[in-house]
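Data deposition worksheet. Section B asks for the primary sequence of the deposited chain exactly as it was used as input, without tags or linkers unless they were present during the calculation. Section C holds the resulting structure in token form. Section D is free text for depositor observations; keep each observation to a single sentence. Incomplete worksheets are returned to the depositor.
Section A, Depositor: J.P.
Section B:
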Amino acid sequence: MGSAGAQRFAVLLVALCIAGAAGARSVDVVYVEANVGGSSGGHLAARFDDRVYHFQNRGGRWLRMERASWAWFRYAYGVLQNRDLTLHRVAVDVAGLRTLRAGFDDRYLLERRHFDILDALAADVALFERSREARIGAWSVRGGGYFCGDAASTRPAGWRARVAPATEQPALARRAAQVDTALRGLALRAVVGADAALRRDRGLAVATPSERYGELVQQRLALDLLRGRRDTALCPAVFRVAPGEAGRLAEEDRVWIEATARALETRVAALLRSRRPDWGDPLLLALARREALAESLRRGRWVVLDAFARDAASVPGASLRRDARRPFLEEIEADVAAQRARALATLRGGSGYDERRFNDWEDALNRALELGRGIRSGHDVRVSGERLVPEGWGPVSGLPRPPSR
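Section C:
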């Protein structure tokens, strides 16, 4: 969103401050005091109960609306950045609160839809340009960065043999050939009506060529992994190992991991039978999580995929290493460790594999490891107000080239 969107946001905040109404509910205008360095300009947000809306600078190009929980917002700005927060409470009636909250929520979702369209169209342009070259080269997709090996696997088949046994290999080879045919024959035509969709605040009615190409690339990569054409070993940069005593596996953890690994293998087999066009994305995530669990057993300590988004915001690590803040930061780290322990207890207490519980544990461990690394080594600390789900973006090479436009 450009300056016009930010101006509308500022007008709404000013209106809230001067147009208080009688009623039992309220809206908070939050002012975040300036700090040093990149935080020298102050910050504004609107808070509705536990939900906060504010703008962030993305890459020096866009002001993007963000939505987060109040607990996360206070943690990111008040705790990690050590900035004072001032709340101006504005009384509104119930109808006004409903209208305002719906307006902020609609604006946030609409902006996300607009940027999704713009990203897809930019990817289309890149694909059209690549299609004129002799080789397509590498194409980046979600899940493409989990596995490092482009060469055939030299490791024992292990669990992969249970998911894709020798009897299934001919069928997988035929499916891979179908995917290659689809990649070579993909129609590269510009999407009609994208400008109208942006003007009318609607999404695109069909997948763009780059979106469909990306889905096929994910399918091709998944099939190559299951056929042993590529190694399933995780890249070191995509997983995190829990240090210290808290990171060691207990016997009950090993039992849970083995059961969950079998559940993920079942999920992989089910996704191979799926008719949904994007089956490659969840299948790659299931394969990567399965490999992370195997790595946990090999190391005897918890290993999880790095779940922070590639464009996640960060807090300068230098601000966490000031001696005066050390006791306070140790308290915060203890709180985060307690959240991690609760997530692990919930994980252990469940019966069977539950993806939501697994996501909660993955999220909690990622946040704890990120904060601990920042405090001890001075690395910048990535933060996110959204649920953390691994993306694993990375390039996939050796792909068939679609016909040029």
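Section D:
The chain has a mean pLDDT of 84.
The longest helix spans residues 94-130.
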